[in-house]
């Protein structure tokens, strides 16, 4: 199925009226941009504070209308007020312009050498634990590493890093909070731990863009992004607003988890993001008393699935109590017990991942990591 173009989708938007003037939103000059990548669509609308509430309804209409178009996988409409809305017709995108084309917003995080999304098709597979420990392991291997918690609805980074304070400011930018050799940022630093984030898609995307574009990250070799589970708004934002080096998919061995992991792989393929490999978490359980090995969820399913999909298998992580207790205590196992079997498993996966990243991330030597 051919991918829709910004031009055809812009024409479709003429069916929606501006609540203030009654004209269609394109002729009224409200459509700032229409971006398309791999079936993921983002529409940016111009508005001001006085009309923002009314425009929320327009956003919903846009998402419902364009979601019915052939070749469209996901739609997000966002509001912006960074300049006054023009009185004339909207400027149309250049022919063939897509998410990275001329006239579009600049990509975020330009000083980061490689951005890696750690993702899963479903929750409950230990993706955040893998993301945190991979990030610390990469830092232990000598890289300047950032860790971004992109799960707006369920941020877990503050608890797993042992942090509870708000970030400091550097001019108009927030400063990432350092921990375990990483530069970190999470929406969980800005709200109380038990505060529910009852937000619609455009607000989620706006918050994620702020954590990328309004944080003084500085030059980094690698940024690890702990993605929320599934294939929704956060994935759309990451695919369109940064140049992802690739994605790491986390799964457990059983068939139902692998089915969801398969969806995650296909989603990144559809958005032209390379899948760097698959990690099997909770691969097996070793009794701490007798060392007997039990494969609670089966074993080797992720390796077989990686072979079937034609992607690399990065490694397996055992199901160990220490991984859970150190995460709950805010001391990732890679930092708390670097010689442990669990830490060694994460270090081996990080080393394989590092070899797949751009050459600039290969040069740094080992260094000591402190909290």
Question: Can you walk me through this structure?
Answer:
With 371 residues, this protein is an alpha/beta fold. It folds into two domains: 6-80, Fe-S cluster assembly (FSCA) (GMP Synthetase, Chain A, domain 3); 112-361, Rossmann fold (3-Layer(aba) Sandwich), CATH 3.40.50. It is 31% helix and 20% strand. The chain is built from eleven helices and 15 strands. The protein has helices spanning 6-12, 52-66, 127-140, 157-161, 201-213, 233-241, 255-270, 301-309, 321-328, 333-336, 341-356, and strands at 31-37, 40-46, 74-80, 112-119, 145-149, 169-170, 173-174, 177-179, 182-186, 220-226, 244-251, 275-280, 285-286, 293-294, 313-316. An eight-stranded mixed β-sheet has the order 8-9-5-10-4-11-12-15, with helices on both faces. The protein has a three-stranded mixed β-sheet with strand order 1-2-3, sandwiched between helices. α3 crosses α11 and α5 (201-213) runs parallel beside α6 (233-241). The longest helix has 16 residues, at 255-270. The protein is globular. 48% of the residues are buried. The model is unreliable at 82-103 and 363-371 (pLDDT under 50).
């Amino acid at each position: 199925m051919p991918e829709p173009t910004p031009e055809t989708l812009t024409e479709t938007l003429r069916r929606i009226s501006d609540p203030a003037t009654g004209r269609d939103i394109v002729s009224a000059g409200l459509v700032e941009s229409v971006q398309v990548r791999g079936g993921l669509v983002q529409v940016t609308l111009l508005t001001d504070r006085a009309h923002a509430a009314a425009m929320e309804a327009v956003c919903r209409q846009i998402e419902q209308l364009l979601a019915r178009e052939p070749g469209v996988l996901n739609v997000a409409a966002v509001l912006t007020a960074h300049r006054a809305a023009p009185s004339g017709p909207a400027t149309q995108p250049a022919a063939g312009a897509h998410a990275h084309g001329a006239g579009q917003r600049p990509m975020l995080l330009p000083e980061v050498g490689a951005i890696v999304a750690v993702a899963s098709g479903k929750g409950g597979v230990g993706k955040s634990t893998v993301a945190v420990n991979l990030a610390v392991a990469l830092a232990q291997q000598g890289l300047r590493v950032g860790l971004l918690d992109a799960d707006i609805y369920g941020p877990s980074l503050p608890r797993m890093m042992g942090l509870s304070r708000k970030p400091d400011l550097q001019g108009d930018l927030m400063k990432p909070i350092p921990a375990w050799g990483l530069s970190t940022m999470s929406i969980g630093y800005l709200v109380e731990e038990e505060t529910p984030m009852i937000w619609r898609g455009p607000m989620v995307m706006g918050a994620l863009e702020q954590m990328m574009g309004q944080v003084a990250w500085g030059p980094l070799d690698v940024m690890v992004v702990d993605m929320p589970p599934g294939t929704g708004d956060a994935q759309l934002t990451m695919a369109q607003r940064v140049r992802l080096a690739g994605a790491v998919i986390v799964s457990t061995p059983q068939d139902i988890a692998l089915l969801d992991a398969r969806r995650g792989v296909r989603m990144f393929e559809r958005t032209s993001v390379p899948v760097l490999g698959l990690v099997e978490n909770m691969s097996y359980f070793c009794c701490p008393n007798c060392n007997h090995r039990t494969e609670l969820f089966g074993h080797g399913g992720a390796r077989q699935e990686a072979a079937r999909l034609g992607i690399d298998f990065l490694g397996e992580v055992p199901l160990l109590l220490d991984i859970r207790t150190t995460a709950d205590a805010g001391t990732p196992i890679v930092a708390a017990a670097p010689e442990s079997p669990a830490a060694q498993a994460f270090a081996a996966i990080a080393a394989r991942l590092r070899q797949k990243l751009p050459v600039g991330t290969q040069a740094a030597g080992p260094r000591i990591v402190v909290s």
